[in-house]
Design brief:
The chain contains eight helices and 26 strands. It has 490 residues and is α+β, with helices and mostly antiparallel strands. It starts with 15 loop residues before the first strand and ends with a strand.
Length: 490
């Protein structure tokens, strides 16, 4: 721009501005939201112009005092179409500018660029990958550490890891062979049992997308963790989706759902990982895998007492027993580290957070269930805590920061503008009373929403993240259908 700001600008002309870059997967348009901080219900500006001078976008306008204002916004590393013109408009409380791209940001060429950037310490483009985790963990002996206080969690290094099947793996096997243990479906049970016997939790640690499942005897733990294993060798068990049923050897028919079968608590203390696979990783449990017989207890660091995982206990209301179902402690990747310093280049779990674990699992569930609505429930009380609607079945790419008007330098946080994958959502708190719970139940039935169960400590982190990111959106765009618009990293 040829003109320049006045030498003695007023405080208003030097106001702080918030900006958010956003683009959708498969879409070749990059959108900028630019609005003052703090936000105002209406924006009084005129003579708006914008010019691209990489790596900056210069926005010029006259404020309500007819003072000329310049805002310099850093532009992300994208392929902007040089032949297309910028589009801009003044909305009620923000400025919107659109740039046309030559390629959408999720094009495969950017995946190659992301791999190159990761070599230079920038891993923002790279997705979380369970296979990469398994490869790195299997290449060396691994100790685990608490991310909060750096305390060593393992008594001895873990040496053997294997990937845990998906939570519906048993159902998939039964689809091949049938689920009646007295018919051809017995072949499915034999196949499953042989598979389970091939593992020994005392020697092998399990890995899924969100968790590492290790034997409780390999970890340091506080004196308050005195749960023991239950075992009843007189019973034989077959498995269904949500319960374990006890078979009566004296009956001629032993089909799931028959009167001869009844619910039984999942109990085992043998050396295989049967129940570990059956119960899953414990970070987020779908409605199909929740059981009234199982009570999930948070596992905390023995030194700082921060929650770092969970383990399943029986929930037998007819006795005073309250014991571990199996010997597997589920350690959540977002709370543990594989090396010191925590978060360093050798830490395999350095990029895991509660929000990106949740985002990836929710997007995966949306693809499988073709549902964009979810109710998040407290795993302990089973009460609804959050309603979430995905605004897109795929990832959004975004970057937010702040800058000051009429400054030669950008003067924000100093971060380079790098688009990151996020999950854009509508969310609402469910409230605490019975009327709120009934409204949530009605909303779930009306729209066919899915349910997931999580520990309250993780839910509180999700709420904090969602509320924090509200500040990256103009007020006029921050709500829809009595729900707030926000996002979480993927």
């Amino acid at each position: 721009m040829s003109s320049s700001p006045s030498q003695n600008p007023s405080p208003k002309s030097q106001q702080q501005w918030r900006f958010t870059w956003e683009t959708l997967a498969h879409i070749s348009t990059l959108r900028l939201y630019l609005f003052p901080t703090p936000s105002r219900p209406s924006l009084s500006i005129s003579n708006l112009t914008a010019s691209l001078n990489p790596p900056l976008l210069v926005v010029s306008f006259a404020n309500e005092n007819s003072e000329e204002v310049f805002v310099r916004v850093p532009v992300p590393k994208v392929l902007i179409d040089p032949e297309s013109e910028l589009e801009w408009a003044v909305k009620s409380d923000y400025v919107e500018i659109k740039l046309n791209l030559m390629l959408p940001v999720d094009h495969p060429v950017f995946a190659d660029l992301g791999e190159d950037d990761s070599l230079n310490g920038d891993e923002g483009f790279l997705p979380l990958n369970q296979n990469d985790d398994l490869k790195e963990l299997s290449s060396k002996d691994v100790d685990l550490y608490c991310k909060s206080c750096s305390a060593k969690l393992t008594k001895e290094p873990l040496r053997k890891f294997t990937q845990m099947p998906s939570e519906n793996w048993r159902e998939a096997a039964e689809n091949w062979f049938g689920n009646c243990c007295c018919s051809f479906g017995a072949s499915g049970e034999i196949l499953i049992n042989n598979y389970l016997k091939s593992f020994d939790l005392s020697q092998t640690s399990l890995l899924n997308f969100s968790s590492v499942i290790v034997n409780k005897d390999t970890l340091f733990h506080s004196s308050s963790d005195k749960q023991t294993l239950l075992f009843n060798p007189q019973n034989k068990y077959t498995h269904t989706n949500n319960i374990v049923t006890q078979c009566n050897d004296n009956t001629d028919h032993c089909c799931h759902g028959e009167k001869n079968a009844h619910e039984k608590t999942i109990i085992s203390n043998d050396g295989n990982i049967n129940n570990n696979i059956y119960l899953g990783g414990g970070f987020m449990i779908s409605e199909n895998n929740i059981s009234k017989d199982v009570n999930w207890v948070e596992f905390c660091c023995y030194k700082c007492f921060a929650p770092i995982g969970a383990y399943p206990c029986n929930n037998n209301t007819n006795s005073n027993d309250f014991n571990m179902i199996d010997g597997g402690i589920r350690l959540f990747k977002c709370y543990i580290s594989t090396s010191l310093p925590v978060g360093g280049p050798n830490d395999i779990f350095r990029r895991y957070k509660v929000q990106n674990l949740f985002s990836n699992l929710l997007l995966e569930m949306a693809e499988d269930e073709i549902s964009f609505r979810t109710v998040v429930r407290d795993l302990k009380s089973r009460k609804p805590t959050l309603k979430i609607i995905l605004l897109s079945s795929s990832k959004t790419w975004s970057f937010s920061d702040s800058c000051f008007a009429n400054r030669a330098d950008v003067n924000g946080s100093g971060r380079e503008a790098e688009l990151r994958p996020v999950m854009k959502v509508l969310f609402a708190d469910c409230g605490d009373d019975d009327d709120d719970a009934r409204l949530v139940e009605s909303w779930k039935k009306k729209y066919g929403a899915e349910e997931v169960y999580m520990h309250m400590s993780q839910i509180e982190e999700l709420k904090e993240c969602l509320n924090f990111n509200l500040g990256n959106i103009p007020l006029s765009c921050a709500s829809l259908q009595r729900m707030n618009v926000s996002w979480m990293e993927c």
